[in-house]
Amino acid sequence: MIDKQKKKELATNYKQSFRAMGVYQIRNVQNDKIFLAGSMDLDGMRNRFDFGKQMNMNTFNELQKDWTTYGGSSFVFEELDRIEPRDEVLLDPADLKSYRGEVDALLELWIEKLQPYDEKGYNKRKRST
């Protein structure tokens, strides 16, 4: 049994550890349509996706129609780009905001490159303002 102090220390270390951030796609292997997204925790997102496939549950609204048609086994998670940490440990949670901006910028570049809309993908076009 882990004592309270050790448990608190482990939780703090986990919160301060750097998680892989970046851009990923979920690709339908039946029709090659893709859904692009960015995440502050790529490994966590991959785990969430894999768990959803095991349970045959989809948590991505954009994929629901094709998930129902083709089944979860027709979708694969693919990491496209990863942001390397400037530091191993994040001592200030505010540092995450700068990384969030990097993830968003990277996602915009990938969206521009792959154009995952209409017959090519599941992403929705942003409305012009």
TrEMBL record:
Task: Supply the InterPro entries for this chain.
Answer: GIY-YIG_endonuc_sf (IPR035901)
Name of the protein described by the UniProt record: Uncharacterized protein
Organism field: Paenibacillus pectinilyticus
Superkingdom of this protein's organism: Bacteria
